[in-house]
Amino acid sequence: MNRFSVLDRSLIKNRLTDTTFDILIIGGGITGAGIALDASSKGMRVALVEKNDFASGTSGKSTKLIHGGLRYLKQFNFLLVREVGREREIVHNLAPHLVVPEKMLLPLLKDGTYGKFMSSIGLKMYDVLAGVRGDDQRKMLNKKQTLEIEPLLPKDILRGAGYYAEYRTDDARLTIEVLKTACNYDATAINYCKATDFIYEDGKVIGAKVVDLINAIGFDIKAKYVINATGPWVDELREVDHSKKGKQLHLTKGVHLVFPHHKLPVRHSIYFDVPDGRMIFAIPRGQITYVGTTDTDFKEDKCDIKVTKSDAGYLIDAINNMFHSIQLTIEDIQSSWAGLRPLIHKEGKSASELSRNDEIFESESGLLSIAGGKLTGYRKMAQRIVDLILIKKMNIRGKRFIKTNTKNITLNGSSFKNYKEVKKYCEQIFEQIKSHGFTRKNAEYLVHNYGQQTDIILNKYQEIKENNPELRLAKSELWFCIQYEMVYLPLDFFERRTGRLFFNIESVRRLKYPILKELALALNWDNKELENQKSILDKTISNVVSF
Ligand code: FAD
Asked: Contact, 491 vs 537, CB < 8 A?
């Protein structure tokens, strides 16, 4: 594994300014990361710039499912169901520790949207389109069987359930591992660098002007092709290129709330109807259960997406309405997040009705913009745009590229053949750490987060002198994330590399000051900067529960 470190920032910047790349990608979400891997594995010279941290946009704020999109069947979008349905298994095989099987329950209720017959047919169709095999194929459960596995469901109106298979992931970690894998193929990527303008020659875009937001110094990056993969910001860059014509983006906000698991003790992930005809997930994950999502038009500041009281109220009502023995209140919320769907606008369609398909726009200057799509479909989106460049355009004068398919490139942190091997490795890690007071859950957290890179973290753990095992492990993780994952700011670590802000906020409260000190030491912050970062982190911790 290559070092991918904030400590090498000036080397990375030298490389960005000294090279003429085949492709420059703007945007470090899953779309940009996927394109970087596809193109670099074919031998192209690839650069990627991200104005914030990697996966700080939509790719860190999704429902965190690698799923076939059952609800797209309702929109008769069979092609999308087929494509993302089939992608699920591929992405699982590329990183079985990070994309883990998750059984879903689709409860059938008196007067609900789905009757037993329709659900049975729908789920069967889902299996066929997505190519689901064996034990993972859908099962229809009667009321008694459903209540046995999920006693929290409402007995009086329950008729049974569909039981089917999806996958759960951590979107931000998936993005960073895809990007690290691209860097193993020599892609050059940097965070906290914003593309502010394009460079043109004879009316054709040949690069971008970029500002390093850490020291406010600008620099140029030259490339034969420039791809705008900025998700919700795609139209902003099209505007800079004077090419925002025809189809445009329609942004909708999606909110998730996190509750302590004992307050919403579902045993399974449940996908259920709400009275306005939408559907909502309740997903148990370790000590918490998260619930989402909303889908409302968004026209405000894309860099400051708030969870409002009304968003929280909508989701809490949905839960209380569904699970009669649960009475959640706003005070029970432990954490939350909100993201923007970069959908393609269609006249007369409401937020929930808009297609989730991706599209590529090409401007007269040659700028390629890609928007829409899903986390699950990142590989295919990448393939489409790289193939477009290769097949239709790339008369890159006599240059030959390798024929690769990213479905055969396992992601960083995984040489697991299947999920069984992941579980075996979890046990090995547990045996290694239990004498330090750690539990099986701690081992699972490490393995699901870092895969086999856990070995590197535990080697570091041996070297660190610290009496508190939790802090000692967190310091080892931080060291790893600084050396290999471009962590620069506290939230890069607490939110996007470890998921703690959402899934274990208490640990953030316990660890925040010693970790900040460690970061300050590694990055040479003075006291003023340390205090500044402390107050930003404290504000964020309070924001995720303030509405
Ligand atoms: P982003 O992740 O937003 O990345 C774009 C990046 O570009 C950002 O990081 C931004 O900072 C950067 N950028 C912007 N402007 C510039 C600039 N000028 N210079 C440099 N960088 C710039 N899909 C699934 O498959 N499963 C799910 O469970 C799921 N759930 C979802 C739930 C919600 C609430 C939402 C909103 C979406 C969900 N999706 C899901 C869809 C999926 O998350 C998105 O399709 C995907 O993350 C979009 O990724 P992206 O890389 O295109 O955009």
From this structure: yes
**Token couple for 134:** 């064996």
* CB 107 near ligand 1, within 6 Å: no
Contacts of 530 (CB under 8 A, 6+ apart): 516, 517, 520
State pLDDT tens for residues 163-210.
Answer: 998 999 999 999 999 999 999 999 999 999 999 999 999 999 999 999
User: What is the pTM (predicted TM-score) of this model?
Assistant: 0.96
Q: Position of tokens 């609900």?
A: 112
Q: Report the nearest atom of ligand 1 relative to the CA of 374.
A: 45
Q: Find out whether the beta carbon of 373 lies less than 6 Å from any atom of ligand 1.
A: yes
Tell me the angle at which helices 78-94 and 116-130 cross, rounded to the nearest 10 degrees.
60
β-pair partners for 370: 360
DSSP 483-506: HHS---SHHIIIIIIT-HHHH-HH
Q: Residue 468 CB: number of other CB atoms within 10 A?
A: 13
Chain segment 427-454, per-residue pLDDT in tens = 999 999 999 999 999 999 999 999 999 9
**Ligand 1 contact via 499 beta carbon (within 6 Å):** no
Pocket test for ligand 1, best of 35, 190, 214, 230 (most atoms within 8 A of CB): 230
How far apart are alpha carbons 269 and 281 in whole angstroms? Answer: 7
| Tokens describing residue 364 | 């007269």
**Taking a C-beta distance cutoff of 8 angstroms, is the pair 190, 13 a contact?**
yes
Q: Which atom of ligand 1 is nearest to the CA of 32?
A: 51
Which of 59, 166, 314, 502 best tests ligand 1's pocket when mutated (most atoms within 8 Å of CB)?
59
- Tokens standing for 62? 């999704």
User: What is the length of the chain?
Assistant: 547
3-state secondary structure of 376: coil
Q: Rounded to whole angstroms, how far apart are CA atoms 540 and 547?
A: 12
For the record, the structure tokens of 28 come out as 């470090």
Question: How far, in Å, CA of 305 to CA of 212, rounded?
Answer: 23
Distance of CA 459 to the CA centre of its chain: 28
In angstroms, the CA 102 to CA 491 distance is 27
Instruction: Yes or no: say if 235 and 397 are a contact pair by the CB < 8 Å rule.
Output: no
